[in-house]
């Protein structure tokens, strides 16, 4: 895709992506456009059979909110291609975190609203009704069409989520991961809405509100989870892998390499996740200052950059002793800090 290329090579700022990541980025953009197309169809389909069901209303709103992550990803992908400038010396990688934050806040706000709205319906014992509809000369209960719409829209998001999850791992993209994670859980929303509609048909008026509450809590859960991750990234918590399940091993790998050099006595790094790539400051204590030549330092930096494609914005700082004020948890083993 030409909008992802600069002189034939996809970039994140001045970081030239390896072929594997270039292919993953193009695939991710393609799948996000496919996701938007599917969401457009499913949102219209659900709207046409919405009726008076609270559960269907919540499912429809969740479909609308599902537009945010793919749109955020596509916008951020364009922004981060810009090279660093005087006003943005670190580049525009934080656009990923901003997009993540915007999506998360929208999920939290709407999830909270739907919980209140559905809770009021349950407390006031609202009895929703679902009428009939004329189709092909016959009268059908609209609830069957609602259930059918939910079943038809339950499967594709799961497939999309599985595909995008693999791409998120390759690209170290937390917005894409959040989108994939939500997609994989969409079948539960569809199932809850279908059960709520069937409950109305069986005379269980409360089933619809309970289903709506379950969907609302699911939206809020997604929002809180993503909000925590987005704020963590923007406030410079330690760098983690794409799904925030553990610290990224790059810091430890770099420290191990630097400590293996004959002229280095000690080495520790602090790693900041800029969005896709890392900003790394490595402090090294030379065994003898006369051996810490500029050539050796530059050679060590180049070797560190070769460890992983995400290592581009890196500096090596020779020091007399490791600065504890810059390296919290210095006495602990490993390159990552608490």
Structural overview:
The chain is mainly alpha-helical and 338 residues long. It folds into two domains: 11-235, Alpha-lytic protease prodomain-like (Up-down Bundle); 249-326, 2-Layer Sandwich (Alpha-Beta Plaits), CATH 3.30.70. It has eleven helices and seven strands. It has helices at residues 19-48, 54-65, 68-79, 95-123, 142-152, 155-171, 174-184, 186-201, 205-234, 250-260, 294-305; strands at 11-12, 15-16, 132-135, 138-141, 264-273, 278-286, 311-318. Strands 5-6-7 form a three-stranded mixed sheet, with helices on one face. A two-stranded antiparallel ribbon has the order 1-2. Helix 2 (54-65) runs antiparallel to helix 4 and helix 4 (95-123) runs antiparallel to helix 9 (205-234). 41% of the residues are buried.
- The ordered H/E elements are EEHHHHEEHHHHHHEEHE
Q: Using the CA coordinates, give the radius of gyration.
A: 25 Å
* Cα separation of the termini: 40 Å
Strand tally, please? 7
């Amino acid at each position: 895709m030409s909008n992802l290329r600069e002189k034939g090579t996809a970039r994140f700022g001045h970081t030239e992506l390896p072929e594997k990541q270039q292919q993953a980025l193009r695939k991710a953009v393609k799948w996000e456009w496919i996701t938007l197309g599917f969401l457009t169809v499913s949102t219209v389909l659900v709207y046409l059979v919405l009726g008076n069901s609270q559960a269907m209303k919540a499912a429809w709103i969740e479909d609308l909110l599902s537009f945010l992550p793919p749109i955020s990803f596509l916008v951020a992908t364009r922004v981060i291609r810009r090279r660093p400038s005087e006003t943005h010396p670190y580049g525009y990688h934080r656009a990923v975190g901003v997009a993540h934050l915007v999506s998360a806040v929208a999920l939290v706000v709407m999830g909270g609203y739907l919980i209140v709205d559905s809770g009021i319906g349950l407390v006031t014992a609202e009895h929703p009704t679902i009428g009939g509809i004329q189709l092909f000369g016959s009268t059908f209960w609209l609830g069957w069409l609602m259930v059918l719409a939910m079943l038809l829209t339950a499967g594709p998001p799961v497939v999309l989520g599985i595909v995008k999850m693999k791409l998120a791992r390759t690209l170290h993209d937390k917005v894409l991961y959040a989108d994939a994670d939500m997609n994989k859980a969409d079948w539960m929303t569809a199932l809850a809405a279908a059960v709520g509609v069937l409950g109305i048909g069986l005379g269980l008026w409360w089933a619809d509100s309970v289903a709506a509450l379950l969907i609302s809590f699911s939206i809020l859960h997604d929002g809180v989870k993503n909000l925590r991750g987005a704020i963590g990234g923007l406030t410079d918590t330690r760098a983690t892998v794409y799904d925030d399940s553990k610290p990224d091993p790059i810091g430890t790998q770099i420290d191990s390499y630097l400590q293996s050099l004959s002229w280095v006595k000690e080495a520790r790094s602090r790693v900041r996740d800029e969005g896709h790539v890392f900003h790394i400051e490595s402090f090294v204590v030379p065994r003898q200052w006369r051996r810490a030549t500029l050539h050796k330092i530059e050679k060590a930096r180049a070797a560190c950059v070769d460890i992983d494609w995400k290592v581009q914005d890196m500096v090596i700082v020779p020091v007399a002793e490791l600065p504890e004020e810059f390296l919290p948890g210095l006495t602990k083993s490993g390159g990552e800090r608490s």
